[in-house]
Amino acid sequence: MAVLVLGRPVVRSGGVLRHPARRMARILLGVLALRANRALPLEWIIEALWPGQPPASAASNVRTHLAELRRLLSAADQPGIVSSRDGYVLVASPDGVDVTSFQRLLAEGRELRGHGAHDAAARSLARAVGLWRGPVMAGVPVPEAVRPDVTMLDEQRISAVEDLVGVRLALGFHDELVPVLAGLVVEYPLRERFWRHLVAALAAAGRRTEAVAVYQRLVRVLAAELGVAPSRETTELFEAVRRNDAAAPEPGGCN
């Protein structure tokens, strides 16, 4: 991968991370990477970088930033940014941008999980999650024009963590995942799936009383924050745990 935006926008060249010198160039790199292999008209780029009030020199400034990015990409032996009558395109291979690599690995991990290949699924999902170095386009403002892209990626990242925890539970890593999940339910208190995984992990580790207490905490959180009760899937898991049911769902099967 040469273009990295799951964290600070940088170009990897010869194993070295190179940051565009100008802040606007870093923002432009992030925008181009989020829309890789798609033509972005100059007018669209200007509006994205300077919404509502572009300077008179906006077009010239964009070309200056593009020149800097092209130099960085050339040093990384990447095809780079090409211009066409439709606009400017960051030309990237499927693994040339960390965003597309993340999405490919996530899809691969989910497919492997669907076939019951939990070891391979865990490897793909761990690689996907491991590509994140921080928030998307960390250190620079995210233009409103690509805010939906960033929101979608943030959701995919959390979902990837949920998937990874699920397959690791299916592989029997109950004890080591309990503290991880305890932290995740604090960080994401409204993500019911993390709570469900924690209940399942505690139950599988023989800590049934704690599993029941976690479920009761979830009930209180959902009632206070959203005015809803846990989903049927979570309730069924809890009932099985409370009965100490030997036929309770496998932890990794908690979606």
UniProtKB/TrEMBL annotation:
GO terms for biological process: phosphorelay signal transduction system; regulation of DNA-templated transcription. Residues 1-92 bind DNA. Residues 1-92 form the OmpR/PhoB-type domain. InterPro entries: AfsR-DnrI-RedD_regulator (IPR051677), BTAD (IPR005158), OmpR/PhoB-type_DNA-bd (IPR001867), Sig_transdc_resp-reg_C-effctor (IPR016032), TPR-like_helical_dom_sf (IPR011990), WH-like_DNA-bd_sf (IPR036388). Keywords: DNA-binding, Transcription, Transcription regulation. One of its GO terms (molecular function) is DNA binding. Pfam families: BTAD. Belongs to the AfsR/DnrI/RedD regulatory family. This is DNA-binding SARP family transcriptional activator. It comes from Saccharothrix ecbatanensis.
